[in-house]
Structures are given as C-alpha cells and as structure tokens.
Amino acid sequence: MLTNTILLLLLSLAIAGGLSYFQYFYKANSKSKVTKLLAFLRFFSIFGILLLLINPILSRKTFETIKTPLAIVVDNSKSIAELKADKTSKELFEKLNANADLKEKFDIQTYKFDSEFQSADEFDFKGNESKISEVSKNLKSINKNLSYPTVLITDGNQTSGEDFVYSFDTKNKVYPLVVGDTTTYLDLKVVQVNANKYAFHKNKFPVEVFLQYAGNKSINANFSISQGNNVLAKQTVAFSPSRKSQVVNVLLPADKVGLQLFTATISSSESEKNKYNNTKKFAVEVIDQRTEVAIVSAINHPDVGALKRSIESNASRKVTIVKPKEINELNKFNVLILYQPNGEFKQLFETNKNAKLNTWIITGNNTDYNLLNQYQNTLDFKMSSQKENYLASYESNFNLFALDNIGFENFPPLENPFGTITANENVSVLLTSRIRNVETNSPLLAFSDNQGSRSAFLLGENIWKWRGQTYLDKKEFTDFDLFVDKTIQFLATNNSKKSLIVNHERFYNSGDALEITAQYFNKNYELDEKARLTISVTNTKTKQVKKYDLLRDSNAFQVNLDGLIAGQYTFTVKELNSNASYTSGFEILDFDIEKQFVNPDLTKLKQLASQTNGKAYVSNQVEDLVKILLANEDYKAVQKAIVKKTPIIDWVWLLVLIAISLASEWFIRKYNGML
C-alpha cells in the first residue's frame, strides 16, 4: 500500500474520531453506554464513507502448485480389438491413471483417438481409422509452450494422416506403450491398389499393386486379379526375409461399359494368422466417350500447365495445347479454353461462329479487349493500361451448378488491367473481385447459359497460384481440380436445364464418407431453398430400404449415408412438392482397413520414441515406465504466486454496513428522545 494512501487512512481515522467525540462527548453531561454506542456508530459511518472515497487497493497473495501435464492417450480403433489387445489396453490405462505417485507428481490428462482426438476415460475400440498424427497436433494446442511427457497406448498401425514419427514435438518425450502380440507371424498382404477411377472402352488400363510379406523364410506366392470367376491376370511373386515387398504392374482390358468390380488376391501354401488382408477389391468405371479440351494460347504461361494438370486429373478429359494459328479442325473438340486472346485469335473466333463450341475465356495483361468486345456480348470491357491485383469474393447465391467455397477469399490475387466490366442479364457470377478490401462489384469468374450456348470468363491471370495455395492448405490439389472439372463439365454439356441435379460417386470403400448432394431449381432456374428432398436407398441383395431427408447446406442439399454395409445399392432422390425425381445406383466395396494387421508396428513406435528421446515399452513393462516417469527430474511441479488486488469500492458489504450503521444511529437517537 502506498505511503499517500496510509496517510489518508490515518487522517480519515482522525476525522472520524474527532467528529464522533465532538458529537457525543464534548461538553456532554452523560457518558452512558448508549452514548458510547452512538459514538461508535457515528465513527464507523464516517470512517466507512471516507474509506470508500479514498478507495485503497488491497492485495492478497496466494500460492498455486502447477504440475507437469502427463498425457495418457489410448488408441480406440478397431485394430486394437482385432489384435485382441483391447482388454490389455484398458488394464494399462487403469494402472497408469490410478497410480497415486503419478497423480502426485503429474496433472494426468486422459484422451483417446481413432479418426478424431478427444478427452476420454472409457474406450470401445470401434474406431474405423487410426490417425496417430492427430494426437501430436491436439496435444501441442492443449499444452502450448509446456514441456510434458506423453504415454501412447497403441499398436502403432496408422491408417490415415501424416507420418506420426515426425509429427510429434521432439522437445517433448513420447513413451509408446505397445499392445498386441509382437511375435512375427507369416503374413501376405495386398497393401494398396492404384487404378484410375475411369477407363475407356476397348482400351487397356494400368493397375499397380503393392504387396507385402512378413516372415522369416523365403516363399513363392501366387498373385492374381479376377473379375467374378474370370482370372484376368496371374503371376508368381517371390518373397524372402530380405525382400519383403513387391510392386506388380498389370494391364487389364476394358471390355464392358459401366462399373466393373475386380479383386486382387495373393496366396501361398503356407498357413496365415490373418487372411482378410490377402484380398482387396477395387472398381473402375468403363466409359465410351472422352471430353476433348483445347487450350489455345499465343503465349507461354504457368496457367496453361496448371489447367492441363487439373483437367486431366479426371481420366475422361483430354487436353491439347495449341497456338491460335495452328488449330485447324474444331469438330474434334468439345470445349475451347481461350487463354488471353489477342489479335492472333481473330480467325479462331470467326471459325467458332459456325462450330459454336462452348468457350472458357481467360484474360490477363496480354489480352486484346477490343477483340473480345467485337466477338462476344456477354461482358463489356472498358479497360486501361494500368495493371491491378484482384482478390476473389465468393457469391453463395450462384446456382448454375453445385460448387462449394474452397477458400476463394484466401487465394492469391489475379492480375488483370484496371477497368470497368459490365455483365448482361444472362450472366451468373460465381466470384466477384475486390481490390484489397474494397469491393468492385465486377465479376471475376462468370458463367453464361444462353439458349444452349455456354461460356465462362475468368478475368485475371496467375490461376496457377490458386492451385498451389490449395496444396499448401490441404496437402492435395483435389479441391482446385474439382472446381476446374465442374467448370469443364458445365461447358461440355449442352443439355437443357434440369430441375433436379444430383451428385454422387459410382462406388465407395467401406468406411469412406458417403455423401450425396442435390440441387433443386424452380421454373426460373433459381435454387429453391424451400424444396423438400428425400432419398430412398435400397440394398439390391437384401431389398432393405432406408429413407432419409436431405438437409440444406450452403448452396445444395446433402445427406450422409455412413453406416451402410458393403454391397450394391439403388437410390431415388425425390422432391416432394413437384414429384421431380432422380434414380441411380452405387456400390460399397468391402474393405476394412483396421483388419489388415497381424502385428503392432513396433519398429515405427521405437523410431518415434527415439525421435523424441523417449523409450518404447511393451505391455508387461508398465512398471518400468512408471519408474522412469517418476525418476525424471525434468518434470517438477512449479509453485506460482498469484496476487489478487481488490479495490475497497468493490466491497458491497461495506456499503451495506454503513447504511445499517446510519440507520441504527437514527433509530437509537429517536428511541431515546435525542432528536
């Protein structure tokens, strides 16, 4: 407390005492108990009021002991149960969580993980995925800037996510507690099958198969790919203790149009503990047509290569890059992408008047806008020679086709000349432009559908940076490639507008997210937010029917069908008000990734422990782990002083007591006839 405050408090005591003395004792004839009580009440009231006016700050110091966090994380995936380690995992967790010495030294935090990471102290081991990398990300966030150990009760068999060995912070020790039988059993396994989703009729398509072997002797295995009862490819594969993996490449014929289901199988004369992982099904949709896309550009630019890669990520698309004066026949193409058209494109525009191919025009600093104004009337350009950077703003009311916002607002700016761009009435704008934080109300990406003639306009160059940003954000190009693919699909289709549009895959793997989206449009082809969409899903084998409602989500309706068993299904989406319907089908392939393992991945867990300066333990070494944790001097409790400052004016009870004191003094004086 400051010296000035102390002096003011002493002065307040003197004033309160002096006024009380003057009121009740100075020249008083009687000094009874009542007089003394009244003097005290007057003293308290005056001193309390002066105390509130001075408002001194009172400090109170308390001490809090902060223990080092100890994260005990349990693998809750199905693979633990498949390895018959679920009971052991629970016992190990209880031993650690109930240990009194650990509780005294550490602040114990208990979690579980499968596809997600969450706090828990009960486990059912029914998770469909093992995502160990999620553990490190979440613990870093929860215990930010702290040094702490982690006990990881797991088999180490990760089925999705980044490599967990390098995802943990090397400053914080990880102690894997390995569950499952570490004895090496002979096991043959189809690890992965790589094949395109689509193939073309009467062609051959490549299939790449990764095979793995666990064992201590040399064996020969039989590998085959079959369709139904027909074996399409077969060969012998040799394994040994020094050669435990093989890659097999085969070419399969695409003889039938439609969804084709295949089975990759590996077997031998040796007995195996787990034969579920000896087979793996995969599907390929055989199609009899291909979309031919021409990218016409007079200049070299990274955008051209980025567009080609994105478009050809869909096997049903083929891209040809040509100069404007080299393109002779337009009939073999379905879509034209005119990249920064200049004077060399004049003859191409003239030729396309008769061919009437749908076009995607991408502008930039090398574009001849007078030429564009001459050969199209969808947009009117009044441009200057000054360059400008344009950021994107997503328009949620866009309704020509279903497309989610993939983070357009966070993409790098596109470069285009500064000017005024005016759109006619038939234009639908997906992205508008803004200069820094100022909206221009001009289109950045726009589409037109006028009596079956379709066009698209991207008003700026450097879209390759968008594709790169997508990879930085998501570690894959999928979102950007899907955005480009839907643009091409819109331009490649000249069908009349449908009121009900449904998007779905033709096949899914068991455990995959099974989502179906739909859009319903009214007579003016506006997205009808009041539509009532339902879906009826039928298993073609069991004839079991399930019905769901599709729920509104941004610019589409969506349903999640997770939980369906493997098999073939037909479904019908129906809009109840108009009776518009869409019928199709899909197949769920039988594949449970959590049943693929016969042993814990002890090697990877030891590598993780070494990377973080920890140590891996097996289930019967839990007592050794406890001793290590207790003996580690790096994890000491810290005593933290907490100073709490409270101003007197916050004391509500002091104000109440002053009021009671004044009231009591008045009543006593009234009662004794002193007023």
Describe the structure.
The chain has about 675 residues and is α/β, with parallel strands linked by helices. It contains 14 helices and 34 strands. A 9-stranded mixed sheet has the order 16-15-17-18-23-22-21-19-20, with helices on one face. Strands 4-3-2-5-6-33 form a 6-stranded mixed sheet, sandwiched between helices. It is extended, with a radius of gyration of 38 Å. The two termini are about 40 Å apart. The model has no long low-confidence stretch (mean pLDDT about 85).
The total beta strand count reads 34
User: Which regions contain 5 or more consecutive residues with pLDDT less than 50?
Assistant: none
Our Rg estimate from Cα atoms comes to: 38 Å
- Average the pLDDT over all residues and give the rounded result: 86
**Tally of contiguous helical segments:** 14
Main β-sheet, in a few words?
Answer: 9 strands, mixed
Tertiary shape: extended
The computed structural class is alpha/beta
Report the sheet-strand fraction. Answer: 35-45%
For the termini, the CA-CA separation is: 41 Å
Helical content stands at 25-40%
Strand order of the largest sheet: 16-15-17-18-23-22-21-19-20
